[in-house]
Prior knowledge:
Layout: H1 4-12, E1 17-21, E2 51-55, H2 62-67, E3 75-82, H3 83-97, E4 104-111
Parallel strand pairs: 1-2, 3-4
Amino acid sequence: NLFEQDMEFLIENGVELQFIVTNTRSRETTPEYATLLDGSSIEKESKDSLVHLNVLNARPKISELVNKTDLSVSTCFVGSGPQDFTNDMRAAVCELIKDAQVRIDFYEESFSM
């Protein structure tokens, strides 16, 4: 709820948002209870939706996610998580930047665990 207005603004302006849930301790974060900003359930997420929720219950292979990114337009990666996670993301983005023909930005918000 805290970032809902910000996320709605980004979506209205064509920004694709991808959220990765790595630990589902509470009922509200499990796929059957997850809802997108438009109120639809995660099972009903349309293929052309700009909001993607991935419930993995494990740390993703961040390099695979970064490498799947469509680089036909300028792209910004924002990493938030433990230091190992943001380090992996930074390394993957640095590799991607080498051959990129568009602007790629990287911002991180890290915390220690």
